[in-house]
Amino acid sequence: MINSSVMPQYQQVATTLRRRIANGEYLEGDIIPPSSELENFFSVSNITIRKALALLSNEGWVRSRRGVGTIVTRAPSSQPLKIAVSGNFTEWVDSASGKSLPIKQTVLECALKPAPSRVSNILECALGDALWTMQRIRRIAGNIISYHVNFGRPEVLGTIKKSTMVPNRNFVDVLRGECGVNLMRMDQTVEAMAADRDLAALLEVEFGTPLFFVENIYLDGADTVVAVSHLYLRGDHYAYQTSISLEDDAHAR
Amino acid sequence: MINSSVMPQYQQVATTLRRRIANGEYLEGDIIPPSSELENFFSVSNITIRKALALLSNEGWVRSRRGVGTIVTRAPSSQPLKIAVSGNFTEWVDSASGKSLPIKQTVLECALKPAPSRVSNILECALGDALWTMQRIRRIAGNIISYHVNFGRPEVLGTIKKSTMVPNRNFVDVLRGECGVNLMRMDQTVEAMAADRDLAALLEVEFGTPLFFVENIYLDGADTVVAVSHLYLRGDHYAYQTSISLEDDAHAR
DNA sequence: ATATAAAAGTATACTATAATACTTTTATAT
DNA sequence: ATATAAAAGTATTATAGTATACTTTTATAT
């Protein structure tokens, strides 16, 4: 069988069945579909299904009885609590200082570095040109939630040092206060991505963990790009909540 | 060595190095760190690094020369084009019909089904109670971008059929038009997650692909929950863009 | 020319993953 | 009681992933 080789199949199957139970697709006391059927559905062998069920069995989700079937032994536990960050993407993305949640930031580095390709395109400089960069980590209750990288031309942002950012100052404030930039607009792009080993190490997560990737492009009054930020946000343990009024029909169309 | 066993390590390393090159951390013509150093950094064996480099070599990113080192042979290609969906999460999430992009939806099923645990909590019914549910797929240019599941009490939403949704009608419209609901508010939660095999099959992606998971809770004038929607959105090939005015200081604090 | 250090490459062995074909247990209809 | 069908469980075998220890090639300083 061709496997485009990510996670071992038995673990993929286990993950999927676990979610089915957690979702309530199989209820406590139910007999789940027999191995033969699961083999068929997932296009894998007997042994792969068995290993998946063995995992679930060890975790206490199911119990297999020879000749009878595999029975769900545990109801879906109540939601694993996620830390909820309020406000929509627009708000929390680079201005998380004075909110209700105690977010702490650490500046890892603040130095001239070669421009990554994606940024050099935006800031209209050559690939590898030295840019002012700053790398930060943010935590809630000690847990890392995001990794921020800011880029800018050294002429404009060069005055920002590690010490400029304490305590928990945000980037927009500093751009205005220290660099005298007339900030007018931010173009924001949000994507979902998976952590590679570099990001996994920084964010203290497993390889493959889903992340939000946010790119902010800061523009001044003349529509010139002043700075670029790249934010990598853990998406697995944090939920981003917002409340939207539907009284006005306009945008629902 | 303990591997919490996701993707094979040599592929993890390859993914990481590929991104370093694409980012411009290693430039064309550069000699990348020698295997011994990479072994050390990634805490893997010689052979694992070699397999990773063999992958990159086949893909034309690098060329290894015995006794010399491994040289980067390809500059980062220009951004792989992503389809950009404009507007922020608030807007595009369940109202994508009449936008500039030609989004087409297909109703997969519209039937009474047992409530998933997460939804039964919100709609305050027992786990497994029959709820009205509707499942939809949305495409842009033939490519699946999202999978939507709507839930509601059968007394309220039971009149909605497959045919009610054509052509490309959105859920909010139907709630108001067909069900006479006085919609007032929507509470939205956004998370990043990875596709299991069920979602992977529906969205036609690989297991592990990063997805946006959006939960919308629809409330009427009396703050009663009327309906719940679960949206699973491909996050890898689609970027969500918005432009934010920074003229007003208020929210940057 | 030659020794040396630093790089990529190879040999061997062990473990995890997974396919195919077969066996045992259980419930149930006769 | 007994045959049967349907379920989980086992044996065997092949292949992929990875670690350890070793070899060959290359550039360079003498």
Uncertain runs of chain A = 1-5, 249-253
Structural class of chain A comes to alpha+beta
Q: Which radius of gyration of chain A do the C-alpha atoms yield?
A: 24 Å
**Biggest interface, CB < 8 A:** A-B, 83 and 83 residues
- Percent strand of chain A equals 25-35%
| CATH superfamily caption of the largest domain in chain A | Chorismate lyase-like
- Kindly report the spatial arrangement of strands forming the biggest sheet of chain A: 4-5-6-9-8-7
Largest sheet of chain A: 6 strands, antiparallel
Q: What sequence of helices (H) and strands (E) makes up the elements of chain A?
A: HHHEEEHEHEEHHEHEEE
Q: Quick one: overall form of chain A?
A: elongated
CATH hierarchy, class of the largest domain in chain A: Alpha Beta
Q: What is the CATH topology descriptor of the largest domain in chain A?
A: Chorismate lyase
The percent range for helix content of chain A is 25-40%
CATH architecture of the largest domain in chain A: 3-Layer(aba) Sandwich
Descriptive report:
The structure is a homodimer of 253-residue chains. Chain A has eight helices and ten strands. Chain A is of the alpha+beta class and 253 residues long. Chain A folds into two domains: 9-72, Winged helix-like DNA-binding domain superfamily/Winged helix DNA-binding domain (Arc Repressor Mutant, subunit A, Orthogonal Bundle); 83-241, 3-Layer(aba) Sandwich (Chorismate lyase). In chain A, the strands form three sheets. In chain A, strands 4-5-6-9-8-7 form a six-stranded antiparallel beta sheet. A two-stranded antiparallel sheet of chain A has the order 1-2. A two-stranded parallel sheet of chain A has the order 3-10. The longest helix of chain A is centred in the first third of the chain and has 15 residues, at 9-23. Mean pLDDT of chain A is 86; it is low at 1-5 and 249-253. At the A-B interface, helix 1, helix 4, helix 5, strand 7 and strand 8 of A face helix 1, helix 4, helix 5, strand 7 and strand 8 of B. Strand 10 (238-245) of chain A pairs antiparallel with strand 7 of chain B. The first copy, chain A, binds a DNA duplex (30 and 30 nucleotides) through residues 1, 3, 5, 8-10, 34-36, 44-48, 50-51, 53, 64-70.
